[in-house]
Amino acid sequence: MKYHPILILILVLAISACRELYVPDVISQDQALVVDGLVTNQNESYSVYVSWSVPFDSYKMSIPGTDGKVWVTDDLGNYYLFTDKGEGNYTSDPNDFRGMPGSSYTLHIEINRELYESGPQLLAVVPYERTIYGLVDREEVLETVGSITRRSFENVAKIYLDLKSQGGSLPRFRFDPIQIIESTYEVVDTLEEIIPPPDSKKNNSTGNPFNTSFLKDTPLPATAHFCWRTLYPEDQITTTSKVSSSEESIYEINQQLIGSFPVKRMIMARDTVNIDTIWYNEEILSFVTAVFDTTQSLVHHRFLILNEHQISEDAYQFYAGIKEQSSADGKIFDPLPAQLKGNIKCVSNPDKLAFGLFEVSSQKSSSYQYFPHIGSATVRIEPYEISIPDPEVGNVTGRPPSWWVY
């Protein structure tokens, strides 16, 4: 079947006429202030991070907002100055300032001869009950090695909360789970072969005195290794997924997912390592090959530190916007990227842009030890007092650190 050239030209023009080039209005400014601040009811130092945004074509992520003045005021007229720690970090004195439930707090930032402020943020505390539990599930995982992406499934421990409040509304929540993993393994060193250096006085015409049966494959004492890791959720913001109905006298949210944590055994394989030198009978022997027979490195303990923040509706909408944008995968109906302004504004010059959030929230912290059972697809969770180790990631040989949990 043949088409007339004129007919084809008409169709092409018609299709082109239906397409309108859209150029979005993107707010562009050399620098906009970006704020990340948090005040809670915990007796600790609060922090405010101040930075400047950069143009889209810049190789930098942001520029720290240095040489500024940061302070917080409350609805009773109290004034709390934050100390400039450098690199855009400003912190409060825990002996001077602690958030009190029922009070409202306003953030003030003076920088580059401009004054920025947040709106008053109420530190609300609503009593509630909650139950923590877990289930073992299978999740799909994409693993990229070089140019090859493989799709597999792995066991994960999913931790849930049921939330309930009587005689009042149930607020929005933001959850901050921190996982601590302890693992142990032993290394058995075996001297498989010893080759003395060519100029060694031991290497004479009678043969190699070191190549004897009692030196070859001689087992050495096992060395115990104690490892720990502190894992924070990467690019993950967990908030309550819905608002409970106000038609009931009991407000509740069931099966609120807190996080999915992989259930893995760290397997250490037999490895061969070349050692440049080794001491033996007060002499250095070179070119020694040692074989390390290593047992399986099993996860010894799993711990969970859970921080629960009661947040305002404005804070929830801010976090929900970030989560929506980060979930986009490039499809036509994905949410469009937007500039989330938050609750910060420039009061000295309304034309200047400001982004970010000053969050004021009541925080409840609890810690647990949890035991995934793959066979029954359940997770046993028990309260356990533990704090974040220092350093947060480490490995020691011989003896565990003083805080190690046996």
Quick synopsis:
The chain is mostly beta strands and 406 residues long.
Show the helix and strand layout.
Elements: H1 5-17, E1 33-39, E2 47-52, E3 63-64, E4 69-74, E5 79-81, E6 83-86, E7 89-91, E8 104-111, E9 114-118, E10 121-122, E11 129-145, E12 148-166, E13 172-194, E14 218-231, E15 238-239, E16 250-262, E17 271-280, E18 283-294, E19 298-311, H2 313-326, E20 344-346, E21 354-360, E22 362-373, E23 378-383, E24 394-397
Parallel strand pairs: 1-21
Antiparallel strand pairs: 1-2, 2-3, 2-7, 4-5, 4-8, 6-7, 8-9, 8-10, 9-20, 11-12, 11-23, 12-16, 13-14, 13-15, 13-18, 13-19, 14-24, 17-18, 19-22, 22-23
Describe the structure.
With 406 residues, the chain is mainly beta. The longest helix has 14 residues, at 313-326. A hairpin with a 7-residue loop joins strand 1 (33-39) and strand 2. The chain has helices spanning 5-17, 313-326, and strands at residues 33-39, 47-52, 63-64, 69-74, 79-81, 83-86, 89-91, 104-111, 114-118, 121-122, 129-145, 148-166, 172-194, 218-231, 238-239, 250-262, 271-280, 283-294, 298-311, 344-346, 354-360, 362-373, 378-383, 394-397. It is globular and about 65 Å long. It folds into two domains: 27-123 and 313-360, no CATH class; 129-312 and 363-397, no CATH class.
Keywords, please?
single chain; mainly beta; 2 domains; globular
User: Hey, roughly how much beta strand do the residues contain?
Assistant: over 45%
**How many angstroms does the end-to-end distance come to?**
81 Å
Largest sheet: 12 strands, antiparallel
Into which percent range does the helicity of residues fall? under 10%
Please state the overall shape, judged from the principal axes of the Cα atoms: globular
Radius of gyration: 30 Å
The helix/strand series, from N terminus to C terminus, equals: HEEEEEEEEEEEEEEEEEEEHEEEEE
Low-confidence stretches: 5-13, 21-28, 191-220, 266-296, 328-338
User: Quick one: how many beta strands?
Assistant: 24
Number of spatially distinct domains: 2
Category by helix and strand content = mainly beta
Oligomer: single chain
Q: What is the arithmetic mean of pLDDT?
A: 75
SS field, number of helical segments: 2
